[in-house]
């Protein structure tokens, strides 16, 4: 499938009710905020979206991302390959009040791959923005090579101390 197969936006209630699922390969260049964090725009991102109803009858959207991207190593500044294999589930709650209630209760999960978000009003989520946000959040905070081939620093020439000439003169006398 192509990026043209991905809907521009969706209503979480409708796609959950319909048990919507799609798998699309999208070019990295389709994500402008992500591109700013990369050294190359080559490659594709495999995007998988699955919607369903949770046990509590709330709509959920699971976002799966698989990509091989290039960022700049923060140690040697050379390109480093970053493999993204990320799955995240959003459970849409009715409003901010329900979100606060879930945060205060023990019902909230301690799973970092699952979060509760308030349903937007009107219930319309921009698909590319949601996917791009997840891509950015899946990147390492500080991309590094496992082992960097840093160039050896050239030994600094010994500089004469400002008073070295004076010390030599004192020794002569």
From TrEMBL:
Keywords: Ribosome biogenesis. Pfam families: YceD (PF02620). Signal peptide: none annotated. GO terms for biological process: ribosome biogenesis. One of its GO terms (cellular component) is cytosol. InterPro entries: YceD (IPR003772), YceD_bac (IPR039255). Belongs to the DUF177 domain family. Plays a role in synthesis, processing and/or stability of 23S rRNA. PANTHER family: LARGE RIBOSOMAL RNA SUBUNIT ACCUMULATION PROTEIN YCED. This is Large ribosomal RNA subunit accumulation protein YceD. It comes from Fluviibacter phosphoraccumulans. The lineage of its organism: Bacteria, Pseudomonadati, Pseudomonadota, Betaproteobacteria, Rhodocyclales.
């Amino acid at each position: 499938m192509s990026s043209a197969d991905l809907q521009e936006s969706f209503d979480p209630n409708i796609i959950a009710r319909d048990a919507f699922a799609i798998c699309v390969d999208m070019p990295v260049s389709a994500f402008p905020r992500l591109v700013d964090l990369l050294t190359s725009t080559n490659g594709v991102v495999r995007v998988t979206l699955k919607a369903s109803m949770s046990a509590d009858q709330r709509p959920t959207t699971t976002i799966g991302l698989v990509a091989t991207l290039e960022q700049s190593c923060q140690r040697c500044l050379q390109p480093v390959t970053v493999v993204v294999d990320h799955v995240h589930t959003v459970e849409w709650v009715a409003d901010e009040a329900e979100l606060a209630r879930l945060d205060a209760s023990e019902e909230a999960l301690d799973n970092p791959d699952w979060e509760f978000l308030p349903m937007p009003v009107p219930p319309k989520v921009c698909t590319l923005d949601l996917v791009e946000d997840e891509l950015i959040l899946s990147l390492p905070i500080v991309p590094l090579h496992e082992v960097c081939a840093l160039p050896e620093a050239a030994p600094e020439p010994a500089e004469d101390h400002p008073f070295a000439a004076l010390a030599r003169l004192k020794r002569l006398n």
